[in-house]
Amino acid sequence: MATTSSVASIGQDQFLQLLIAQLKNQDPLSPVDNSQFITQLASLNTVQGLQDLNASFAQQLKLQQLTQGADLIGKTIEYLPAGASETRTGKVSSVEAQSGSFVLQVGSDAVTLDQIQSVR
């Protein structure tokens, strides 16, 4: 039985292959109902639209994080380093992308945006 996530991961090409196989193997005396065919195509278009929207949203989020990071260059921030119990303070010298997220360079520390406690 297919799970929701496995059904969602079916791409447009796979969906069309399934649809063609269904049409080739249908009973000629009882063809696929037109409304079912249209419903399946509408579902495919909806899934494709959601995939495009998710990709666009991810790009927009990266651009927003880059802009937020760039706005902090030259500013003093208070941050909590990973694994530390006390905050540190330093001036942001640069921002760069690392493994899909943006990291601020503060002295010798690499600081992610979620580690920032305050901006001065």
Set down the secondary structure blueprint.
Blueprint: H1 4-8, H2 12-24, H3 34-71, E1 76-79, E2 88-98, E3 101-106, E4 109-112, E5 116-119
Antiparallel strand pairs: 1-2, 1-5, 2-3, 3-4
InterPro entries: FlgD (IPR005648)
Protein name: Basal-body rod modification protein FlgD
Family: Belongs to the FlgD family.
Q: What this model shows, in words?
A:
By secondary structure, this protein is α+β, with helices and mostly antiparallel strands. Helix content is 47%, strand content 24%. A five-stranded antiparallel beta sheet has the order 4-3-2-1-5.
Q: β content, as a range? A: 15-25%
Could you state the order of secondary-structure elements as H and E?
Answer: HHHEEEEE
User: What's the story with the biggest beta sheet?
Assistant: 5 strands, antiparallel
Could you give the distance between the termini?
A: 55 Å
Treating each run of at least 4 consecutive H or I residues as one helix, how many helices? Answer: 3
Overall strand count? 5
What is the average of the pLDDT values? 85
- Measured on Cα atoms, how large is the radius of gyration? 25 Å
| Strand order in space, largest sheet | 4-3-2-1-5
Helix content range of the residues, please? 40-55%
Low-confidence stretches: none
Shape: rod-shaped
Based on secondary structure, the structural category is alpha+beta
